[in-house]
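so i finally got all the pieces together for this one. its two components total, 537 residues if u count the protein bits. some of the lines might not be protein, just check the labels. i wanna see the whole assembly predicted at once instead of chain by chain like last time, that was a mess tbh
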Amino acid sequence: MNDHDDAFTAYVAARRSHLLRVAYALCGDWHRADDLVQTALLKLYAAWRRVERGSEEAYVRTILVRAHIDQTRRSWWKRERSGDLPDRPVPAAQFDERSDLFGALQTLPEMQRKVVVLRHWLQLSVAETARELRISEGTVKSHSSRGLTALRTRLESGNVSRA
Amino acid sequence: MDWHDALERAIPQAPPTHHNPAALVADGKKLVRRRRVAAVAGTALAVGAVLGIGSIVVPSGADRATPPVATQSAESDEPPAPDPSPPTEDAPVTYDHRTDEVGLYPGWKVVDRIGPNGVADSVAVEATDGAKTLYVHFMNPTEISYVDASRTSATSLEAWLDDVKSHDLAINWRPRGELRARGGWKIVREIPNPLGVAAPWDSMAAVVEREGLERWVLYNGDRSDSGRESTGRDGTYAIPGQTIDEWLAGRSKEFRKEFEGKGVGDFGVGMGTTRVVTFGSGSEIVPAKDGVEVVEQRTEPDVDGFSAGASRSAAAKITVDGAERFVLVREVDGDTQAYSYEVGQSPWAEDRVPISIDEYLDIIDSVPSDGMWQ
């Protein structure tokens, strides 16, 4: 490995778990999240020399969000199945019994869910969220408002599909 | 409510997974090499993709997910395109991509033509028989859009191409959900579950239309209560002389082929923790909530290391509100840990087979645990 590869490997080792969590928040399926992260990291590797150090996170997050969008548009002949068994079993404390809030988050329309994740969990600004999702700031605000309202309503009514 | 803190608590930590950094770097290098090799061809494909406006996939094989414009590249291993059908009353304009010849039904003449352009030799033709004018876009040998010019707001063939390009098909669907269209597209007809699949699978077909341009779409996917979900889409422009029902019959056969020879274990397994069961007074698994029934169980299951170090352990086949699940339960240091597995099944109910608890244990045991149960 060269310096470039070493730096990339160190970044992956440090941030992969977080990126996997972000992907899971976006798609609600660990297997699919794993595929998304793999896709995003491969694209990051290809662009590594062009990405300013310190900007890797924003760069790969953008890839992640857009890769998810692309993936949902694929034909079923290429779709990512939530198929195989996990690599290994996971201790109970680390695996999820879906919380009501997480369950409610997954019931939101895709763009509302992404806005809530980026804006309210990852705490991106309205402008940053708009840029990552390629939508207007006004649309971010409206998705944010509707998304949070829907979450509140579903949590209050208990109308959330549970695992 | 502090949404950040609430979401931070609600979004689970990622499970540990095996990923070899060296393999990731090696795959990254391959991607870089592929991009370099494809750089020149990529430019051409980009042009073709623009001309293949609004194209959706017309698949004919298992891995044929790239748009047809891309499959016309020199690297394509698709069989050569069939000879174009002769002009008919329903499809009075044809185009042969190999000879660059426009075919016309008697009484029709070409008014305007754009192309061939791009790597797929896309050609657009305006033709009329005096009473009716058609805009036809031959994106590639398998993807052709016809529209009655009087039903569009465009005043020329070029304007129509630009209009279509700026109004890509905008519809979405998820299993057991509603089909929704936007961006000017209207759902003309919905055909629920044309593939005849059974829950948690679902399918939906529809005729959608915008300014006279008609498309047929077919969705399928599965969505289980435990969160497994995938959705795929197939589609074509309306085929002159054919009905969507005839098209669906063909697609349904292709879809069936995709699942031929698949058996238990080929449809994936979902896993998570659960609280629907617990231990009784001994090592037997008992329901911990209403709607749960224990069908069959084994004590101390022979699953790589799961029972080692546990004061009690068991596996069971259960139903939760009628849905079949498998659970592994153990007690370690007074803490009861229960894991729920959902084994995916064929889309068609008649192809589904009962899964015994022993088959289930074989599936689970075949996965390397790498000591994680310790």
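The radius of gyration of chain A is 17 Å.
Confidence is low (pLDDT under 50) at residues 70-97, 159-163 of chain A.
anyway lmk what u think
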